[in-house]
Amino acid sequence: MPILSMDTSTQVSSVAVLARGQLAAEITMQARLTHSETLMPHVAQALAMAGVKKEALTGIAVSVGPGSFTGLRIGLAAAKAMSYALAVPLVGISSLEALALHYAVPGVSILALMDAQKKNAYVEELHWETTGAGLRLLVDVPVSVRPLAEAVARAEALASAGRTVVLLGDIVQKRVAGKVALPAGVLVPPPQLLLPRAAHVAWLGSQRLAAGEADNVMDLEPIYLRRSEAEVLFEQHHPERAALEVDEQAARALEARERHGTREVSR
Known about the structure:
Blueprint: E1 3-7, E2 12-19, E3 22-30, H1 35-50, E4 59-65, H2 69-86, E5 90-94, H3 95-100, E6 108-115, E7 120-131, E8 134-147, H4 148-160, E9 164-168, H5 170-176, E10 186-187, H6 198-210, H7 229-237, H8 239-259, E11 265-266
């Protein structure tokens, strides 16, 4: 049951193939090349490394955000095109929940962060708990956009209350690690454990696909949570036209959050 997955939510390009319940291949690269340059070559390379023909794929999983507007659009467009062409189901996966798989440890508070620009971050609070079936990932506070300083203060408050807190995500490496003094209870993992991995997207996607779930390839959209810089500038220059689009944009954003919002996942 080979599954192809991809994560383009940040500058990291990551593609993986899951086959026979195991990670058959993964390419993860952080470079200055754009996703439009690297994504499809990485898909071809990962399939070749795994020894899987694209016609043998039984599903595709893709990170739907939050994250980079351009990156998410490129990844989702590629995933939709392949899903439609190969007639296989497509599932969208939260980029922040995928990050949480880096630290599958019960009793720890996880703050998964993504850069939201202008000193802001997409933030989701999660934790793992032990069940009879293994570990289960639970969402404590759903994803939102907060000032980065506020997210760090939240981590410090949890640590003061006796929790061990782990900060995950690209913005932690860029804006927090070595730049912000953190209390002993707030941990920053090594750089390789702060970046997204398509293998995690594949694993979460395989759970949804095994449960018979699939998203509509025609209307699956990224989770943005905020407007792009282009939309902000458009509104400033064309306020009369932008006002007519607000209700439609809000409705689409709400639908996306409800469709790909918080859910329990097991490990």
